[in-house]
Design goal:
Blueprint (H helix, E strand, L loop, with lengths): L2 E7 L4 E8 L1 H12 L5 H19 L5 E8 L4 E8 L4 E8 L9 H5 L6 E8 L9 E6 L11 H13 L3 E7 L4 E8 L8 H6 L1 H18 L3 H6 L2 H9 L4 E3 L6 E2 L5 H11 L1 H11 L1 E5 L6 E5 H14 L8
Parallel strand pairs: 5-11
Antiparallel strand pairs: 1-2, 1-10, 2-9, 3-4, 3-6, 4-5, 6-7, 8-9, 12-13
Helix pairs in contact: 10-11
The structure holds zinc ion.
């Protein structure tokens, strides 16, 4: 079963999380297949992004979707992973052209150095006119060196936007998408940095984080993919005292619905929609996340616009 484990390091301002997406991940892959098979490099990228989105969602107190998007200038134009507060997740990618074998982040999404990663917090109930929060980071480091891993991009983001030191290790194959997140917690009362630097206790605490981040960095891809949580945490942190919490259960779920597609067609307008019917006899809209096909025939479309007109004169939206 897919699991997310949260833990604290006793006596240190450090928290950790470990996620293993198993059947939720294989389901996400199977659903994507119906929309067209994607190369292994892209599947691995999406798995890492899905694991990261679930970790980042579990790491914040926020009632809304966390959406991780990478806009690419290589064969991958867009990769998206989204996680909800109940840790349900979904993901999709748009690939145009050949993906070189063994391609990593740069060759997939950052060929010309214009790739961008956007992290969006989209509240469940958005007030009218209010934009969701969005942070954007490039796919290169401070010295403009191209980054080869999603984890490095997100570590950069968390340091920049939240001033939180974070160590992130991600890996995915076709069976498992997994991730380990280690984060330094802000120390209370350390607002005055100079005083903090003089304080030996705080230096000790800082060394604690560094030690744990180093240990996390020794985790191999094989270990992350194959070991269960108990074995993995023991192998890495056997000298530390951990407080562990009840595991949570992430799962695959798509939020698409016939009602949403209907809203989209209403937004498109009567002439456009009827034009599609005239052309193909049917309007077919597929969900990029789960592969479901929604079909509307001439009767559906006719009914849609007359009833929408009756219910909401002058409006073309159902939202
Ligand atoms: Zn869907």
């Amino acid at each position: 079963m897919s699991e997310l484990h949260k833990f604290l390091f006793d006596g240190l301002p450090v928290r950790g999380m470990l996620v293993r997406l198993t059947e939720g991940w294989t389901e996400a892959l199977r659903r994507r297949e119906t929309a067209g098979a994607q190369p292994a490099e892209v599947r691995a990228l999406l798995g890492e992004m899905a694991a990261a989105a679930v970790l980042m969602q579990a790491n914040i107190k926020f009632n809304g979707a966390l959406v991780l998007q990478i806009f690419g200038d290589g064969p991958v134009k867009l990769a998206v992973a989204e996680a909800q507060p109940d840790l349900s997740f979904r993901c999709t990618a748009k690939v145009v052209g050949e993906v070189p074998a063994g391609a990593r982040l740069e060759a997939l999404l950052n060929v010309h150095g214009n790739g961008r990663c956007a992290i969006t917090l989209d509240p469940q109930e958005r007030l009218p006119g209010r934009q969701p929060y969005q942070g954007v980071v490039p796919l290169h480091g401070d010295r403009r060196e191209p980054l080869q891993q999603v984890s490095a991009v997100l570590e950069h983001y968390m340091l920049q936007s939240e001033q939180l030191d974070t160590r992130l290790v991600l890996a995915a194959d076709d069976q498992v998408a997994a991730g380990l997140l280690i984060q330094r917690l802000p120390v209370q009362g350390a607002a005055n940095l100079e005083a903090a630097e003089r304080n030996e206790d705080l230096i000790g605490l800082s060394e604690g984080y560094n030690r744990i981040a180093l240990l996390a960095g020794t985790l191999t891809r094989e270990e992350l993919l194959s070991l269960d949580a108990q074995t993995l945490l023991h192998r890495l942190f056997w000298e530390e005292r951990l407080t562990r919490y009840e595991p949570l259960q992430p799962r695959f779920a798509c939020r698409c619905s016939r009602e949403r597609v209907r809203g989209m067609l209403l937004g498109l307008g009567r002439a456009e929609s009827e034009g599609l019917i005239a052309e193909r006899g049917l309007v077919e809209v597929g969900c990029d996340f789960c592969g479901l096909q929604y079909r509307f025939d001439a009767v559906d479309v006719g009914e849609m616009f007359t009833s929408a007109h009756r219910q909401q004169p002058g409006s073309s939206s159902v939202n």
